[in-house]
Amino acid sequence: MGFRLTLSLALALAAAAGGAQANSIADLGLTLEQVRALNAQLTAPIAAPGIAFGSPTAYGAGWGQSFSGIGGQTVSTAQDDVDGSALLGFGLGDPHRYLALEAAMNVVSLTEGLGQDGNWSFKFHHTFSDRSALALGFHEAAGWGDASDTHTSTYAAYTTVLEIDPAAFKRPLTLAVTAGLGDERFADPDDDLGAFSSVALSWHRQSSVILDFNGRELGAAVSAVPFYRIPLVFTAGLINLTERHADMEFAAGIGYLHSF
């Protein structure tokens, strides 16, 4: 259901309430699916929980949207027990009508030399009417400091959202699935191209559980939007679960979404 249809349903309900012409929603001629969709739109929290934990998704920011975040993980190869990074990004264009560009600046390390090392990432993306999306991205495309030696990782990703029939459960469930191909960090060190995927199950509109394979390692996490009207997203979990190329580590991050 698109924005125009949802808006028309909302106006129909408002008009009916103001004129006191309808005795019930059934008098408006709405199906049960339309009522559920309208209710979901009107009562949705201001932000959604995460749907990936290391893999890129096809969704991205458009014009009027920006985001920031800070995260950290335990590290086994450095002297410090924990290392962190910060992220700032914004969007250009309309992903629903045309094509949008998301640009993100990543400050690689927060433990020493704050701001001395970092890189940029870019994503071209489009969202279709069925809520699926397609993206072409360039991760760590340009860097400064020690991060300038990092190779760019190119990827293509597809993301879709599936609504699981609420009749089979006590509440509606949402499944977000991402699949894609990429090189460099999204592939095994000995391979030129790798496949990545993530699956996120939301049993509540403010929380999700995530299983993610980034092309090299498997990770699992939980994500939550703690406050209904504050666009703050918290995600935490374990990476390198199979310990194929490194030890298992804990990672967590907090992100904030801004619309203008």
Description:
With about 260 residues, this protein is mostly beta strands. The chain has two helices and twelve strands. The chain has helices at about 5-20, 30-40, and strands at about 65-75, 80-90, 100-105, 120-125, 135-145, 155-165, 175-180, 195-205, 205-215, 220-225, 230-240, 250-260. The longest helix has 17 residues, at about 5-20. Mean pLDDT is about 85; it is low at about 1-25.
Note the main attributes of this structure.
mainly beta, 2 helices, twelve-stranded antiparallel barrel, 260 residues, Porin, 45% strand, disordered N terminus, 2 domains
User: How many strand units?
Assistant: 12
Low-confidence stretches: 1-23
Number of domains as seen in the coordinates = 2
Give the biggest sheet. 12 strands, antiparallel, barrel
Précis, in short:
This protein has 260 residues and is mainly beta.
Topology of this structure?
Elements: H1 3-19, H2 32-42, E1 65-74, E2 82-92, E3 100-107, E4 118-127, E5 133-144, E6 153-164, E7 173-182, E8 194-204, E9 207-213, E10 218-224, E11 232-239, E12 249-259
Antiparallel strand pairs: 1-2, 1-12, 2-3, 3-4, 4-5, 5-6, 6-7, 7-8, 8-9, 9-10, 10-11, 11-12
